[in-house]
């Protein structure tokens, strides 16, 4: 079976794919100090708890944190006797083209989302991913990645506001009862919530105008449903978009040998 790992700046997701579906998915905080042995103890304990007797034969990794990749490689070699496919490395082939400025390094998570979006929904897409950063990735008609937009993530913006202004508290993002807040927390929540609604709508509208064609908007990440409940921002929400993309890339690399 395939162990797919998506390592982001904040969290790392582990999923086991049996060839047709994900039979288990777990999330942990991203820590570059975590050793291969610690990963294995954590993972094997969860598998035993859920009575999963899967034999891991393959592994694929997408990581926006380069320092964690070494220990994940050791995990694959030491405990699963396999060499992992690492998205973004020269030996990892993608089933789509990447058309950006020469020398530009594209985040592996953005490439994986592009592959997943095209596999599931075809071309001419805008993929909006709510992570540590909020990213907008543009997928051409043939599935190629052709660029995008990076904005500060929602929680990152809230944290920065709290840290930079001594009088402002840390608040959780939620839909405010009204646009005009009558206390500090409500004012902050309104600014973030409606500010991001405006950001998403405007960026997507400008991408569509620049591309001069209809485009489907795909969202992923935990906060997407929160924004979608108020405005019709996205055509499709897919929570497992990145993990699906990892399975597609793994299959592609196995097919080409």
Automatic annotation (TrEMBL):
Pfam families: Pan_kinase. GO terms for cellular component: cytoplasm. The keyword Membrane does not apply. One of its GO terms (molecular function) is metal ion binding. A monovalent cation. Ammonium or potassium. Belongs to the type III pantothenate kinase family. This is Type III pantothenate kinase. The lineage of its organism: Bacteria, Pseudomonadati, Pseudomonadota, Alphaproteobacteria, Rhodobacterales. The gene is coaX.
